[in-house]
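W.,

You were right to be curious about this one. When I first looked at the sequence I had no strong expectations either way, so I just let the prediction run and decided to look at it fresh. Below is the sequence, 347 residues in total, followed by the output.
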Amino acid sequence: MATEVTRWLDKLENAVDLDWEHRKLELWKRFLDFKPTKSGFKISTRDGGSQPGEWPKVLVNDAINDMGKMLLQQLAPVYTATCLRTLDIPNIRCNYGTGILASLFGPELFWMDAALDTLPTVKPFGDEAVIDKLLNAGVPSLQTGFGGKAFETAEYFKEALAPYPKLREIIWIYHPDLQGPVDIMELLWGSEMYVAFYSCPDKIKAFLDLITRTYIEYMKAWLRVVPEKDPVYFAHWARLLKGHIMLRDDSIVNLSPEMYKEFVKPYDERLLREFGTGAIHSCGHIDHCVGIMTDSTVLTALNMSQPELNDMKKIHKAVVGKGKILDCPYNEAKMKGLKLDKGVLLK
């Protein structure tokens, strides 16, 4: 497999145009400083380029079981963007699914059939007694579950890219999908968590505190393996953003603004502050919480999906109106009349 990986790395190294990559990076930095563009910022924009050639297709489960295959899987969109000269930031990650941090606490892993080509996750405990045991045990080993595997894979990525000066320069190894504190809690506790917000709120907060402390320890360990590439910016999902961490808040669709403010925001803010600012991703209907979320000095951007489920005028005002980047798919009906010349990253 080593020879096979080398063959494709050679091909990618030869395809890199460093002049274009430098100009692209400067364009992103100007955009993040709210310098206007003609019509928002479209990451699909091209500057010449050519159609990509052959690149191996690797299924998710195969990649998880072979670090060389995972590297090739992660580099596939990098190769495409390099050939087409799109505005995508060349980045790769240790791709083990949404359950990486949750897996440190010992839940059973849940695998999808290989043919579905979908990442694994974890099965919730669904038992408050187990949560009590986790609270008594404290911060778990960072090597449990997928935790140690992500570190090992990052070391492999660095070693594989080392002989390639252009790839070392342009490729960002971004942090794994660690979710956010409340999302991790739902992965571990299950839907019973929502009842516990009312029946045992102190236990909810204690568990969120434990998850947040574990998150901090894991991210610190990650940054020792993969030091920050830039003191101001970080890459995630082929974007460049300000800060160093991307949290997930998908579970907030089921919470009131008051519950979000009490049970979610303090732990998100703690993580954003610990790592010197960053962004939050959230799916679904979130406009009921967005004003509270963006009332923050440590949040730099909101990455969201499904604008059709949200009042985008409200979202735009709460995000761009407070000097933060709004990253979302374009929806003509929902975004009609919005000023999209700055601060809005359109997919």
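Here's what jumped out at me. Residues 186 and 193 are 6 Å apart (CA to CA). And, maybe more interesting for your project: The longest strand covers residues 299-304.

Coffee later to discuss?

I.
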